[in-house]
């Protein structure tokens, strides 16, 4: 039975295994823990579960740190290494042995497999029942042994889960799990409980694939007389097809979303909303998320990853960003992806014009390209089609008018409009060659906005480059 933690400060934790990149599902778990703790003035702790030495790597550990840092999830204190606490785990196993809540089992792997094979043949349960459970220590042979939990055989273990509700596990379906291996190393089940207890964790918020583990871990808490945390097992993330998220669905690592150019704030917003709800609110700030987030808002059904929704939220967050913040985010993305250095001042001049039309950071840079390039402007195929001889001659006529303009939007619109009218053209007919000359592209911000950002000298020079080509 889960004890109350209302009188204790909230402490949550994220405990990934360092065997690869930070998965988007793990990132959401970390985010839920972070929001729950930060919204209640509590602590959010980080533990690296690196007991699998064959698969754990320093690079993967750093990838976890980098992913959490990019996502904006700060943790309290230093990250804890589970492997470094092996002596403490063994100490608890031996304490359980001394109190009669655990026992030494000398059954070999061959004996255990023989038991299971016989059970399968006879149609019995293959749940291993150790013959050493009630043995006297004096009868122990001089052979390797493990320490097993002396789990209750009767009744049930009940998990009152904050998300899944009351879940009951029949004790006769749970075996006496190994706590300490024959080489003296602790198992995952033991290590997790000891670490959570020693770290003062009050709420264990994790994927529902750990729900069965909670029953086993609860038995360790009971055996040690420790207060259990609040359990909250959240549904996993599925792909759009309803199947468990995997590489076939596209990006699954946090760093991939960073490289795709989604701002961290948008990813936080989207992941918060993925499996949790607050009325009909879709777009919200970090402050609102911390205030609103609670376990009661988490649904039981698996959430489905939808990139279109993420893109939509990303666009809203870009629009809401301060210009300076957007420039910094775009420059950070450019550095992350190995892009050539970008003129920050030029980008800053263009950002106010382009931010509302973009959904990702690379789109910001692409839309601002007109301000970042140098002469002569590289004109792509589509844009060059707009620069036929007639259009080039009209732009040549425009140049002297611009040299004397006051360089306000109204004045520029009037000059270009008057020239188009004198040629019997609509303004749109003149806008296309202007875009080509100024940006080398057909999809750009307003030509007048580009002129204002580029300034008189650069605008006239770019148009002059086109005029030179015409006269040559």
UniProtKB/TrEMBL annotation:
It is found in: Cytoplasm. GO terms for biological process: glutamyl-tRNA aminoacylation. ATP binds at residue 247. Keywords: Aminoacyl-tRNA synthetase, ATP-binding, Cytoplasm, Ligase, Nucleotide-binding, Protein biosynthesis. CDD domains: GluRS_core. It catalyses: tRNA(Glu) + L-glutamate + ATP = L-glutamyl-tRNA(Glu) + AMP + diphosphate. It holds the Pfam family tRNA-synt_1c. A motif ('HIGH' region) lies at residues 16-26. Residues 10-311 form the Glutamyl/glutaminyl-tRNA synthetase class Ib catalytic domain. GO terms for cellular component: cytosol. Residues 327-464 form the Aminoacyl-tRNA synthetase class I anticodon-binding domain. It comes from the Bacteria. A motif ('KMSKS' region) lies at residues 244-248. Monomer. HAMAP family: Glu_tRNA_synth_type1. Belongs to the class-I aminoacyl-tRNA synthetase family. Glutamate--tRNA ligase type 1 subfamily. PANTHER family: GLUTAMATE--TRNA LIGASE, GLUTAMATE--TRNA LIGASE, MITOCHONDRIAL-RELATED. Catalyzes the attachment of glutamate to tRNA(Glu) in a two-step reaction: glutamate is first activated by ATP to form Glu-AMP and then transferred to the acceptor end of tRNA(Glu). This is Glutamate--tRNA ligase. The lineage of its organism: Bacteria, Pseudomonadati, Pseudomonadota, Alphaproteobacteria, Rhodobacterales.
